Amino acid sequence: MQEKACHHLHPQSMCPAFGGLRVLSRIEGVRVCLVADQGCLYGLTFVSHFYAARKSISAPELMNVQISGGTMIDDVRASVEEIAGDPSVTFIAVVSTCVAETAGIAEELLPRRAGNADVQLVRLPAFEIKTHPEAKDVTVATLLRRFGDWDLPRKPKTLLVLGEIFPVDAMTIGSVLQRIGVEAVFTLPGTDIDDYRAAASVEACAVLHPFYERTASLLEDRGVKIVAGNPIGANGTAEWIIRIGNALGLDAGLVSTVAEEEKRKTRAAIAPFSAL
Q: Which residues cross the membrane (predicted)?
C-alpha cells in the first residue's frame, strides 16, 4: 500500500494555557479557578504542580449536564464565592480554555471582587493562542490592563523589564542600570499584584522577549517608551545599555562609560569559549 504524506501535520505541544498558569500561579495570594472540561483540568493541574508554583487549582464540576443545561455560569460564581471564603486568597484568576461553552464566558456576569479577593477573567483559548509564550503575554496584558494604576504620573528614570528571567538576573540587570542613573527597575511577569500596579507608571519598558507583543502595545499606547533588543553578547549588551539611557534621558557620558565597561566584562567572560 502506498503511503501518502500529510502536509498539514505539525508538531503538537502541551495546551498553551499552561503558559498563563505559570504566570498566574506564581502570584502571591492567588487561587486559579479553571473553567474547562475534566480533561483540561486533569492535564493542566498535573503539569502545573510540576512546572509552575505547586499551588492548588480550583474548578467548578463541569460535567455534560452543567455545560448543556445552562447552569455553568452559576457554578462558576459559586466556585468563586467558595474560594473567596479563604481569607488568605487575595486574587482569584478565572481561567477559561478552548472548550466551546467555557471560552465564551461573559466577563460582566462574574463579580469583580469576592470576599477579600479581586476577581479577573483570563481567556486562554488554544484556537486563538497557539503557544505558551503567547499565553503568558495575554495573561500579563490582562492583569496590567486590570490592575495597572494608569492615573499615576510617570516616574522619571524608571524602567520595566518585560519577560521571564531568573531572580539573580533581575538583580544583576538592576545593579548595572543603577550605575547609569536608573532609579527603579520593575519586572513582569511579577509575583505580586502590586508589581502590575507599579508597572503602569514607568517611563520606559525594555522588552526582553519578543513574544510580549500585546503587553508592549498596551504600554506604548499608554505613553510608555519601548526599548527593543536584548543584552546578548558584548556589543549587544553595550548597545542595550545605551538605548535605555537614551529612552530615559540619562547622562550620555556616564551611560557610554558603563556600556564600554560591560562590553569589556562580557568579552572577558566569553573569551575562554571562543574556540568551541
A: none
Give the Cα separation of 24 and 11 in Å (integer): 26
Calpha distance 255→6 (Å, rounded) = 55
User: Residue 275: is its pLDDT beyond 70?
Assistant: yes
- Amino acid making up residue 113: R
What is the C-alpha to C-alpha distance for residues 204 and 211, in angstroms, rounded to an integer? 18
Cis peptide before 189 (omega within 30 of 0): yes
- Sorted by where each begins, the domain ranges of the chain are 17-147, 155-270
> Spelled out in words, what is the top-level CATH class assigned to the domain 155-270?
alpha beta
Using CA atoms, how far apart are residues 257 and 236, in angstroms rounded to an integer?
15
Domain 17-147, architecture per CATH: 3-Layer(aba) Sandwich (3.40)
Domains 17-147 and 155-270 share a fold: yes
C-alpha 55: how far from its chain's center?
17
Rg over alpha carbons for the chain, rounded to the nearest Å, is: 22
Element at 221 (helix H, strand E): helix 213-221
> Cβ atoms within 10 A of the Cβ of 193, count?
19
pLDDT at 68: 58
pLDDT at 239 over 70: yes
